[in-house]
Amino acid sequence: MKTILAVDREERERQLLVEELEAEGYHVVAVASAKEALAIARRRMPDLVILELALPHANGIELIGRLIGINRKLPIIIHSACVSYQENFMCWLSDAYILKSSGFGELMAAIDRLLLGTAPDSLASPSFCYNGGVVAACPLDGC
Length: 143
What we know:
By secondary structure, this protein is of the alpha/beta class. It contains 4 helices and 7 strands.
């Protein structure tokens, strides 16, 4: 069973991710901070990380760099309501940038692409933003 690390400061968002992803057959570890995420990743590297960028005590951009420092092949999906980070070059290190307003289907398509290789070819390139079914290069097109 694949393990997904979900990092989000909001408890409600973490609970929703756990419920939805476990229903899809994934094991989910949900944490609220970058510090907790790093501790988990150092103990047992997850198969994929879903990351909110606005975190307490450290932002998600810093966390991306640290996670990639531990395992440069770790798939990372930014799942955030924060559009202001999309122009940050460090976001390009993620495999997908999905706005929370996009819905769970877009997130699942990215997860399936990264873990199972089953998403459509149109979603096969890294660093794309999926917003309401619109696929645009991120961050240059300002998804």
